[in-house]
From TrEMBL:
It holds the Pfam family Aldo_ket_red. Keywords: NADP, Oxidoreductase. InterPro entries: AKR, Aldo/ket_reductase_CS, NAD(P)_OxRdtase_dom_sf, NADP_OxRdtase_dom. The keyword Oxidoreductase applies. NCBIfam families: PRK11565.1 (NF008598). The active site is at Y51 (proton donor). The record marks K76 as: Lowers pKa of active site Tyr. Belongs to the aldo/keto reductase family. One of its GO terms (molecular function) is oxidoreductase activity, acting on the CH-OH group of donors, NAD or NADP as acceptor. The lineage of its organism: Bacteria, Pseudomonadati, Pseudomonadota, Gammaproteobacteria, Enterobacterales. Coiled coil: none annotated. This is 2,5-didehydrogluconate reductase DkgA.
Length: 275
């Protein structure tokens, strides 16, 4: 397998399985990072209103020289905009200099405020208007997802959650799959690989395949059927993270990495964050 893989979403749209995340990248950093990413083969870019770099992403897209239809651009609705998703989307589109998004996500459920169903209804309407091709969520737990489905009849195509070898969220991932919701991993390398890259199995597989620990972990996500968006602004790492199409991990190797799970959350708890 030498070509980047794609995932078909339950609404019929298709997205690259591996994309570039740009969390914590400045407007200046993100331009060079995206240019490098597109040069080496990435076609999916994941940003958010809260990242404050949509303008840089837009500048990079315009100047990259790649047809818009060849790119898959994701952004996210921030917590303070759950009651005004149409306006928030318009702001994001203006910053990005785009007419539509390929994927728009509710960034956090913020259950303490409890406007996420209202926000979801807004996203459904934006999709009907053609301003977004696909709609989904981030950091939603099973009760949040079930409520969206119960109250609107529309399931997200994506649930983007913190997922890495130390926090595998297998129960949530399984529930997503049962409802045809694709799981997407953020912080897939556990924020720089601390506690992951030094694991014996990761080193052993890196030696076996002639790859870096980061490439082994990214391949684990891909071979586990996850969409994955490693973040980097370092040109060599951007290229390294994409150079994962010439090998696959076997079932036993995947299982060995699965045993690294510690239920170790590095980011916020979705049940508590944002209230």
């Amino acid at each position: 397998m030498t070509h980047p893989t794609v995932i078909k979403l339950h609404d019929g749209n298709v997205m690259p399985q591996l994309g570039l995340g740009v969390w914590q990248a400045s407007n200046e950093e993100v331009v060079a990072a995206i240019h490098k990413a597109i040069e080496v083969g990435y076609r999916s870019i994941d940003t958010a209103a809260a990242y404050k770099n949509e303008s840089g992403v837009g500048k990079a897209i315009i100047s990259a020289g790649v047809p818009r239809e060849d790119l898959f651009i994701t952004s996210k609705l921030w917590n303070d905009a759950h009651q005004r998703p149409a306006e928030a989307l318009q702001e994001s589109l203006e910053h990005l200099q785009l007419d539509y998004l390929d994927l728009y996500l509710i960034h956090w459920p913020v259950p303490a405020i409890d406007h996420y169903v209202e926000a979801w209804k807004g996203l459904i309407e934006l999709q009907k208007q053609g301003l977004v091709k696909s709609i989904g969520v981030c950091n939603f737990q099973v009760p949040h997802l079930q409520r969206l489905i119960d109250e609107t009849g529309v399931a997200p195509v994506i649930n983007q959650i913190e997922l890495h070898p130390l926090l595998q969220q297998r129960q949530l991932n399984t529930w997503n799959a049962m409802h045809k919701i694709q799981t997407e991993s953020w912080s897939p390398l556990a924020q720089g690989g601390a506690g992951v890259f030094d694991q014996k199995i990761i080193h052993s597989l890196a030696d076996k395949y002639g790859k870096t620990p980061a490439q082994i972990v990214i391949r684990w996500h891909l071979d586990s059927g996850l969409v994955v968006i490693p973040k980097s602004v370092t040109p060599s790492r951007i290229a390294e993270n994409f150079n994962v199409w010439d090998f696959r991990l076997d079932k036993e190797e995947l299982s060995e990495i699965t045993r690294l799970d510690q239920n170790k959350r590095l980011g916020p708890d979705p049940d508590q964050f944002g209230g």
